[in-house]
Amino acid sequence: MDKVQLEQCIHEYGKDVYTFCSQITGNCQEADDLYQDTFLKATELKEGIDYNRNPRSYLISVALRIWKNRRRKFAWRKRIAGTCALAEEAAEVNVLEQEISVEDVILQRELEQQVRKAVGELPEKFRIPVYLYYTLQLSVEEIANVLEIPQGTVKSRLHKARALLRQELEVVFDEI
Amino acid sequence: MKYDMDELLKNALSAKEEPDYWLNQSIIKQIEEKENANMSKKNRRMRIPAVAMLTAAVVVAGSASVYAAWKYLTPQQVAEINEDQGLAAAFQSEDAVAVGEVQECGDYRVTLLGIVSGENLSKYAAMDDSGNILNDRTYVVTAIENADGTPRPDTSEDDYGEDPFFVSPLIEGLNPSIYNSVTMGGGYSEMVEDGVQYRISECDNVEKFADRQVYLCVNDGMFYNNDAYTYDEQSGAISRNEQYQGVNALFTLPLDKSKADKKAAEEYVKQIEDEWNGNGEAEEAEEETAASEAGNAISDETDATAQAAKESEHWKLEDFEKNTELVKEMELTADADGNYAYQYEISADGLASEGVLGKEELSDRDEENMAKCRRIMSGEDSQTAYIETFTLKEDGNVVLQVYKYRK
Is the CB of B31 inside 8 Å of chain A's CB atoms? Predict the structure, then answer.
């Protein structure tokens, strides 16, 4: 892969890969590291980044592999490293451009924050498919390939994740 | 208020984060640096020049074949490191055979990793002495290690190449001192990874001989060593000389018998025989002229080498000085047989060469004592070729000069 291809790859998939790294790590520094290591590893692996074979899924699966390998380390580092509010910053919306009231915007933002929090607290086996499905909008088939599990399992995990979130967010829905 | 869970999740979790610009730049820079470092590791690519055979002393050896636990790079990986994706793919194809047979000879362990044959498999086009593309080839990957577990010297180290090996297919019924890599358009690329020396050897496709036993010899030295093997002229069988103490590994190549082609094999043997006896040159010259007249026989890929061969045919020293760049000069001393062995590398050009100039090749010289025998090697790109010239000095030594030719 030459420099131009690499830049194109980063341009096309960098945002998705970075968001995914942010979501699974929940920490700026860790997200940066994971994102960087994902590209370095992806170009180093013998299969390489192949434009004909869904590079986004490939990059995500590399990120996931690296992250899983490092989970233990992440666990203790998370306790000492301050997490930055990636999601909150990113969720900023331009109020003036919306034809909705300030109150609605605040409510919506509050609700989305609660949803992100609830998703973040899901067990990993439900949380990862949720990120892959809703954030990266991968198909069930692509998720099955990335996680190396049957498509049926992906569907049931997504279904179960939604049920758990509904249950968790019931109180929030009631309050809003 | 009723919420659509799908919609809510999409909005809340949509990709909004972006990597910092400098983070991306840092990644690009690191990958570039890594690639540059890999490039500078220099995989050696060499042609085996057609030269006189060397002989060595008869001594004692011992060896046993075992099959390797797969601790080595696969042939495919070796080809990938050599940046030859076509060959890597070929080693993954059904036609490729993974072997993994290990033979230990003295201080070395030699492993035959795999073999594949076919047309246009590699991106590196091999050429004969006239610059014609040789595209129907057999590729064999071997690994050579120090038996005591110490690493083999890296190609960038000074002691790389100090204990050279000769790897070649040998064919049952054909005298191995004549029919080997040297006469079969051989060449190789070499690299060292994790202390293991990997070699991709190539030569003309040997599948045409698949109805006979086809061997692979790995002996110490730069050429086939008559003392390392025994050739039974009656049966045509080739075997290891058990008394030989150096390296004399001998494998049997697993070829698909259905690919044997008696007629092609006979023609090929005849061609080598003619060349060996010096009968082929006139024919070749005629072919070359015809090709040149047709104006389309030489592809762009080989242009520099072919053009260099053609243009420099009658050049004198001043023509070389005018038209090319002198990149290497060294003095060669004759060995006991009167031949001149040489080995050199030009790091800046990623070129390494080794060979022996037979004393008879010096008999035809111009008025400046430059031998009319020249050796031409392809460069890293299709625009470059290297020409080796040999000038006999009054004291009997020979000055080897290497000129870089640009198309």
Answer: yes
